[in-house]
Design a protein that fits this description.
mainly alpha
């Protein structure tokens, strides 16, 4: 029973870290008015988040292994809290940028440390389920960063809202330090995973673990699968999906946003189910990963290949299925963990994050390049209007990336829900 309240506070921290990923979209107009900045500058402010995750992937994993998840989570939460307060009180855009940087740095260690903690408190054949529920909690945090945040901003103003959120995060940091324990032995309990018992490895040993993980060829297929699936998903749901629906189908922005929310709902529902199916029903990693990724590729094919846009009635179900297919990534955490040294869970999970967030940024940039290359010069209120052909070109890249993910999913080592890093 102890393990459930042990991971409750980290779950709440991940909830708020995901919230911060989405929040700038809601207050974009307020920020442009407050700091008199352009849309490009605002885009750079939002882009800090994924770059922080990429930069902190291996250092964050190393901290989780050396300091332990409890201290790393506490430091990350305090940094995230300070960043939210600085952002809310910022007198100028430079200070707001610094606050957002602190938020990104603090948030970048939360999921890695949470899963590192779960590796101590849950069996190997429960890990995918916990990873799935983590994604669900994060998705709920993303939903909080939409309409609920907008209502809070309407009531308190954007500055007071972020300062308040920073205060809540600081309280969670204190709760994390007081309640969380790195392993069962800290409460006088027997270890759940004896192979992981004992003192945390030193910094030198952890640094040695980085090339060991990167040099293990079995680490790469699951990581590349995750990078492809997540990169294409965010490019559509987080960037081009709403413009595509409003410009090609001519529907209002609110309706288009609601259709994008169905993709988030698909991910929210599928993540724990895929994890549970892998852990408890199948006792396998590769079959659910391949099945979910194949569904994902099929949805992209339907969106991309026909010469005419699919009927608008199809878009909602397709968005939901796109989210369901992207639920495949929750199995990846287990796949990459189970083929590497169990002493270096933090480094292994950090290694996973590095190409994923770089791929996320690269896919968004490349889809934008394709759209601009096929732009025919149409404008509406200063906004570029892209044709169906332009969007099909951008989505063709997403389809190609997704198809590559399906190929790498087929190359993932089947571990049968156990660690096999010593197996040749």
């Amino acid at each position: 029973r102890a393990r459930w309240w042990i991971i409750a506070v980290p779950a709440l921290l991940y909830f708020f870290s995901y919230f911060h990923r989405i929040a700038p979209v809601v207050v974009a107009g307020d920020l442009m008015r407050a700091f008199a900045v352009s849309a490009a500058a605002l885009g750079n402010l939002s882009a800090i988040y994924p770059y922080c995750f990429a930069a902190m992937a291996l250092p964050g994993g190393s901290l989780a292994d050396t300091l332990g998840p409890r201290r790393t989570l506490t430091l990350g939460a305090l940094t995230m809290s300070a960043g939210a307060v600085v952002f809310g009180l910022a007198p100028g855009f430079g200070m707001a940028f610094a606050g957002r940087l602190l938020v990104g740095l603090g948030a970048s260690v939360i999921l890695i440390s949470s899963l590192r903690l779960a590796a101590e408190w849950f069996r190997t054949d429960e890990f995918a389920t916990i990873s799935g529920w983590s994604q669900t909690v994060g998705s709920l945090g993303g939903l909080l960063g939409t309409t609920p945040l907008a209502l809070l901003v309407e009531g308190l103003g954007w500055r007071a809202s972020f300062v308040s959120i920073g205060g809540i995060t600081a309280l969670l940091a204190v709760a994390c330090f007081l309640l969380v324990r790195d392993h069962p032995s800290a409460l006088g309990l027997a270890p759940i995973n004896p192979v992981r018992s004992g003192p945390a490895p030193g910094l030198r040993a952890v640094l040695y673990g980085i090339p060991a993980v990167a040099g293990n060829w079995r680490s790469w297929p699951p990581v590349l699968t995750s990078a492809g699936v997540y990169g294409a998903f965010v490019a559509f749901v987080g960037l081009w999906g709403v413009p595509y629906l409003t410009q090609v189908y001519g529907i209002p922005r609110v309706r288009a946003s609601n259709l994008m929310a169905l993709a988030a709902m698909g991910l929210l529902v599928a993540s724990p189910l895929v994890g549970w199916a892998s852990d408890r029903w199948l006792g396998r990693r590769r079959p659910p990963l391949i099945a979910a990724t194949a569904l994902y590729v099929g949805v992209w094919a339907v969106l991309t290949l026909p010469g005419q846009p699919v009927p608008i009635e199809w878009v909602g179900p397709l968005c939901f299925l796109l989210g369901v297919g992207s639920g495949a990534v929750v199995v990846v955490f287990s796949c990459v963990r189970e083929v590497n040294d169990p002493r270096y869970v933090g480094v292994t999970l950090g290694f996973h994050n590095l190409p994923v967030f770089l791929g996320f940024a690269l896919t968004q940039w490349l889809t934008g390049v394709i759209l601009d290359a096929r732009w025919e010069g149409a404008l509406a209120a200063g906004t570029r209007i892209y044709s169906l052909g332009a969007y099909r070109g951008a989505f063709a890249l997403c389809l190609a990336v997704s198809a590559a993910s399906l190929i790498t999913a087929c190359l993932v080592t089947e571990t049968r829900c156990r660690n096999m890093w010593r197996t040749p």
